[in-house]
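Following up on my earlier thread - several people asked me to post the actual chain instead of describing it. Fair enough. Here it is, all 97 residues.
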Amino acid sequence: MTYKIFRESLLHSSAPAGLSDYLRSLWYDAKGDWNKAHQIIQDLEDKTAAWIHAYLHRKEGDIANADYWYHRAGRKRQDLSLEQEWELIIKELTTDN
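Reply from S.P.:
Thanks for posting it. Predicted structure:
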């Protein structure tokens, strides 16, 4: 999936078929469903999932929990807006990054 197609999918009421759990989580986050986004990502154990998990807890305002997940992801919390971080993650996960 390309970045452009992913962004365009946000105009629709349902997530596109075939999205990875990472992109599906971020799709629901962008649509305003933090709980669904968190539900999708919370049980995945890899570093990419941990990064998304960290971002979601940062968005929630739980910085201590976010920092725990950034550590699990092997990353540090950056001085980016939530929108910038969301876009950075999407760009790393799409094929035309």
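The chain has a mean pLDDT of 96. That should answer part of your original question.
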